[in-house]
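Re-run with default settings, no changes from the original entry. Doing this only to confirm the output is reproducible before filing.
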Amino acid sequence: MGPSVRFRFGVGLWWRIAGVGGALGAALTLAACGGGTKDAVGSFFQAGVEQKEIDPELIRPAVLCPPVEVQLGTEALRRTSGEGDDEKLRWQASITKTARECTKTEAGVAMRVGVSGRIVEGALGGPAKFELPVRIAVREGSETTYSKLHKVIVNRTGTSQSWALVDEAIVVKDPNATQILVGFDGG
């Protein structure tokens, strides 16, 4: 068993060496044949291909877009009839998602900030129309450069209703040092 295994291994090894050597030889032969940009290999790979100019917008670096954070303690808003437990709850609204989109401008980075959530009827029931106070603020470094209170009108058609808001008026100068905060105001 020993000699036949050696023989097979030896022949397989020689075939592999011959194959690699043949491929290397063919590559060297092709490289030696050509000259300049109009060599046989180059013209083969570029046959029928016309050169096109690339749109610079396609290779433009992505715009840094600061994240949106829900301010701690402002993610929910509850209305009850008096003080106390959940049995006196009329309705509760919550922020469930945030989003942002950024575009580079001459003034800095223009942002569209989106906030959405749900409003749920409580045990005592609530009105069919709600006004949710949602604040969007921008802090650049230690300075608040933008703060706007939005009144989101929600017409409830069932015990639970989605709501959404998009603010398109935000411009930041340095997205690296910017914090976007959202939340209910006056909770």
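The chain has two domains: 2-52, 58-184. The longest strand covers residues 89-105.
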